[in-house]
Amino acid sequence: MGKFFxxxxxxxxxxxxxxxxxxxxxQTHADELQTIQxxxxxxYLGTPQGWFWFENGKKYTGFRYYMGTYYWFINGVxxxxxxxxxxxxxxxxxxxxxxxxxxxxxxxxxYNFGNNGTFFLRGKSSGYLDAGQGWLWYExxxxxxxxxxxxxxxxxxxxxxxxxxxxxxxxxxxxxVGADGRTVQGAQVIGSxxxxxxxxxxxxxxxxxxxTARWHRANGQFASRNxxxxxxxxx
Length: 235
Prior knowledge:
With 235 residues, this protein is mostly beta strands. The chain folds into three domains: 2-78, no CATH class; 82-143, Ribbon (left handed beta-beta-3-solenoid); 167-230, Ribbon (left handed beta-beta-3-solenoid). It contains three helices and 25 strands. Residues 1-21 form the signal peptide. Keywords: Signal.
């Protein structure tokens, strides 16, 4: 489809007086509407009333390829920022009238339009991705809050944004995410206290030791010497 319309555009440009050079199309004169209609001209043409897309002298409704992308026209007028339906598929044109592709957040929901130049809607986006608002975690198009595994580690996201250097609570347990956003494990010094998060990739807080130099369980109770030894910690 794209190759066909690129050929059409170059042919139209030559017929109606466009200057084609270095991959650009530049208008050299404006046709009167009556002339366009009488000569059954086609393409994106400038008139004294503005720019319109014509097909055989008639103002066109639908998608057309122009200057490297697809635009949607209604009665010849380019349309911006809206959903479009054509060929049994759904599309979206941005605030410059271009059909979008890739992941795009629209009115707070992220959608996937593919990345192979076909532009149609695949569905709502999920995962850690850039939908035009920076890198965020989405689930079913919504910005996600909670833990997710990414690239071999667990991260905590708040409204899609990866968190750093913070305590987080989930599944009845406490966790800590470090400066790189990763959930920590093992013994960690946070502030003026030492915390132990286990070493079996479950990451939740087991024990803490504060200024009293005594180990406490996560619930605040004193831990026994045997518990501490069983976890490989020094009493």
